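Translate sequence into structure tokens.
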Amino acid sequence: MKVGVLGATGYAGQELVRLLQCHKEVKDLYLSSSSVAGEDYDSVYPHWSGQNVGILQDENVPDLDVLFCALPHGLTAARTSTFLSRNIKVIDLGADFRLNSVQIYEEWYKIKHPAAELLKEAVYGLPELYREQIRGQALIANPGCYPTATLLALVPLLRNNLLQTGYLIIDAKSGVSGAGRGVSLGTHYSEVNENFKAYGVASHRHTPEIEQELSRAAGHPLTVTFTPHLVPMTRGMLVTIYAAVQQGVNEEDLRRCWLEQYQDEEFIHVLPPRTWPQTKFASGSNNAFLQLTVDQRTGNVVLIAAIDNLIKGAAGQAIQNMNLVMGWPEGQGISGTALWP
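Result follows.
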């Protein structure tokens, strides 16, 4: 297989390179970067020294079987039609094809959608929830990191009408790598170190993506309160969700629903009662860890999910989608446990 990565020098792009190097179906790897084309990959990431990863190319994409696009929003969509016409399967790690509504995309991302006609062809790429829709498709919208953790926890419970939909609070925390490799004051060491802050309050762009997929699960429109936070660590994501259960629903009903949904899943782990997810459980892996409890005082449920924001939240899930699209074993190239400690 000939596989390419647009945006190979970003954090998600580098993780794609690392994982694809171990994928036995990948023979040739085309890596591009508009900013450092012509340079050796190990000149950008010296930890690759001696491994002959290759020279970074410009963005004149050659004939490929699969192309991963790890680019800012707006840049992938403008070229996707051309890629598809050349029989290149596209897995977009950006936001261009995640939202079904052109109007909502343009409202939240403040640009005109470059390829609105392709939205109906794109499949939302969260394998554990939409596996059969993903198989064999040509255009996959890889979910955002916050939506991945949130949807894995909530969708099965909403599909089974176990939660009330008028009260959903999502309190999420991410490592700094989620902001990307670009330099900005907000992710400067002295700004982040020994600090903890909310950002994108009531305005984060993952909000409509979360609401779209939760509404799909519930069968009617719903809204959520979503607040992300920046944690002074490199990678990892922990999402805590508060919800009201339906009348007569107990903790065992909720846990049974999760276990039935995920019992055969390689990467989703429902932890034993009272074992709470930690970001280190998932660090460097494609795994997700889930736990819940019903607060007996309030009657509300607390759901917690932990993932690696760069793996299950980006590059690992993208390769999981490629494996599904191509008909290969789903865990190929991405199996394995976290780094510990």
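Note: The chain has a mean pLDDT of 97.
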